[in-house]
Amino acid sequence: LSKTPPVLITTFETVEPGTEGGITVLGEVAELGIAGVIGLLAWVLGMQSGSFSGINLFLAIAAAGFIGANIDSVLGATCETHLSWWGNNQTNLWATVSGCLSSVAIYFLMS
Length: 111
Description:
Layout: E1 7-8, E2 22-23, H1 25-44, H2 54-82, H3 88-110
Antiparallel strand pairs: 1-2
């Protein structure tokens, strides 16, 4: 969808669309927007607890989603292209774990 060619997240070299670890500004904005929508839904649905406010919940989820999505790109650019035994399933697993751990870390930093 982007009019500009993707760049590799690790070196910022221009790459072909579909290259593992390739990112665009439009893609990064979309990642942040989607993570924000999920954070907003959590806030609107009242998923905050205790002294952790709705706005903090929104910010923590949006940031963690953005971090996880970018970890996915980094792992794609590094592990998927350099390790024969590493595939997309491993990338997805560790990107999800990193997003989850990021949300926990952000929660404790904001509390």
